[in-house]
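task queued by scheduler; priority normal; single chain, no ligands, no partner chains; default sampling; output format set to structure tokens
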Amino acid sequence: MSILNLFNRNPKPEGLNLGKRIDGAPIIAPWPSPHILISGATGSGKSGWINSYIYQAAARPDTAIVANDLKQGMELQPWEPRLTDLAYEPTEATNVLSKVSKLVDTRCALMRGNQRMWTPNLGPWVLFVIDEYAELSDLDPKAIAKALDLSDIDRKEADQLLRTARANAKARKLLAESNARRARAAGVTLLISTQYATVEVVDAQIKSNTAIRIQGYVPSDEQIAVGLGEGHTDHVTPGSIAADEPGVAHLLGWDDYHKPRLGRAAYVTDQDVTAQVEATKHLKYSWADLLNPPTQKAG
């Protein structure tokens, strides 16, 4: 049976079970979902939340998963057999962002004049994970130069490489922002993770289009305001979560989560990832599957 038909079988309950709230209730995140912003300092447990999302989404025959992991795949490489695509470095990330943008264009054209939101009879939901958004969109020339090996080339060539790298970084930033604005209607959810929840990194375009927020320990009020929203700094402080409580986070943005609630991500071990990949890799979608939808039209 075609992979495009698999999601019509064995329906799963709606929602992804990500862990438990502090009161012991399960954390059932909606799926399909608004875009998600996960923030927190190094060691706060962002990877735990990302793995919980992917672990749950991977089990769904109606869901494709695409990812950018600009830490050379250190976090997400074990999931690769289940992923449609995984970018390890900036050039690959630009390509993945472009393909997601093309997917959104294709799906919007399919729906045009018939319906405003994607429905699963037309094709799978897509989870697009961007792990370390700061690396994806960094426009700082010093940061770009640090990422390049310019030691053995002349100044003119180095300057050209810097200009090209900066242009590509700007392109990635613009593509990510465009996808954040348009993708949800086309059945694509962005999950954006960063340890730098500052206004320089998470700008207004990303903040205004990420309705679900998950924030672990951060050291400043500014990062709380960016990660959760300006209105939550009165009752959430840097000391609300201890630095040595990885996986504990403030949750905001779904069902009765109108104010931040504390919860802990499910602990997904390396063995859990390996087992889930083995059990679900046959559900992997190719780009051809996604970019060439079935002949059934919207409406």
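post-processing summary
- The longest strand covers residues 63-69.
- The radius of gyration is 19 Å.
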